[in-house]
Amino acid sequence: MAGSFSFLRRHLRLVIATGVLMTAAVVFVLLYFEPQKLVLDDRVDEPPPAAAGTPATVLSQGRVISRGHPGSGTTRVLRLQNGSRVLRLEQLNVENGPDLRVRLTEAGPRASDDSYRHDYVDLGALKGNLGNQNYGVPAGVRLDRFRAVVIWCRRFTYAFAAAPLSVSRQDA
C-alpha cells in the first residue's frame, strides 16, 4: 500500500495530467457525439396548422421508413388557404440523435446517404423525435423537384429516416 502512495507522489503530475485528459475526453464525447440522446426522447405535439378555420389541402402524403435508425410515422405536405405550405410530421417515432434536421431532398427515400448531401432544402432542426410537428416550406420552393423528406443527422452526415414526397407540378 505504501508503495502505491509513493508512486503517486513521485508521478503526481502524470496522474493529474491523465485525470485531466480523461475528463476532457468524456466531456468531448458527451458534447460532440451526444450518446445520451439515444436514450432520451423529445416529444412534441403541435396541432395541425389551420388558416381561417378551413381545412388544408393535402399535396403529398408518405410513410416514414427506417434508414440508419428505426423510424415510423407519416409525412404530409399541406397547402393552407392563404397559399402557404407546411410539412407536417404525424405520429413520428424515430431514434433521437445529435443535430437532427428536416430536409426536402431530390434523392428518393432509399437513396444513398451521400446523395442527401446535395440538392436539398433544410426546413430546420427536428423539434422532437416523437409526436406531431409542423415545418413551414419557404415560398418559392418548387416541391415537384423533391422526392423525399429526410430526417438527417447533420453532424455525422447520416440519414436516420425518410419518407417519399410526391407533389404534382401543378401543386408545386
Automatic annotation (TrEMBL):
Pfam families: DM13
Transmembrane segments: 12-33
Protein name: DM13 domain-containing protein
Domain of life of the organism encoding this protein: Bacteria
Record-annotated DM13 domain positions: 56-166
Taxonomy of the source species: Bacteria, Bacillati, Actinomycetota, Actinomycetes, Kitasatosporales
Keywords carried by this UniProt record: Membrane, Transmembrane, Transmembrane helix
